Amino acid sequence: MDKLSKEQRRKNMQAVKSKDSKIETLLSKALWAKGYRYRKNDKKVFGKPDLTFKKWKIAIFVDGEFWHGKDWETRKNDHKSNQEFWLKKIERNILRDKEVNERLLKEKWKVLRFWGKEIEKNLQYCLTKIEETINETKRENNNR
């Protein structure tokens, strides 16, 4: 049984953003402040990554724990209402994430995925990982 009324639940779900979420903005502003320029939600790149560095073929995804099924095997029974819908929805999201990763890797993109809480709690780690990937890609390109 849902703890919220139908109207409250509807309002909560309407407030969920598909882009420019708080965590996505936190990461993108930090990258911008460091002088990195990127594209946001580029429709020309398969999977429409949250951030892309086309020059280096790096795609960055910011995944919400709920929507993308973090710790799914232990958490999937947490859904108390409309369980059939949520299991199907989130499992499809997990599968789609894998399909997007595989296709981008086939197209020689480097794919980075961060959980929302990972960005909130350890932004510096995420920035370092992105910078390491950029530097690694630059070195690879110079050796060609």
How would you explain this protein's 3D organization?
- By secondary structure, this protein is an alpha+beta fold.
- Helix content is 55%, strand content 12%.
- It contains seven helices and four strands; from the N terminus they run H-H-E-E-E-H-H-H-E-H-H.
- The protein has a four-stranded mixed beta sheet, with helices on both faces.
- The protein is globular and about 55 Å long.
- The mean pLDDT is 86.
How are the strands of the biggest sheet laid out side by side? Answer: 1-2-3-4
The helix-and-strand class reads alpha+beta
Helical residue percent band = 40-55%
SSE string: HHEEEHHHEHH
End-to-end separation: 59 Å
If you compute it from the alpha carbons, what radius of gyration comes out, rounded to the nearest whole angstrom?
Answer: 17 Å
Report the mean per-residue pLDDT as an integer: 86
Low-confidence stretches: none
Q: Tell me what portion of residues adopts beta-strand conformation.
A: 5-15%
Main beta sheet: strand number and arrangement?
4 strands, mixed
Number of strands: 4
Put simply, the count of helices is: 7
Coarse shape: globular
Gist?
With 144 residues, this protein is of the alpha+beta class.
Short key terms for the protein model shown above:
144 residues, alpha+beta, four-stranded mixed beta sheet, 4 strands, 55% helix, single chain, 7 helices
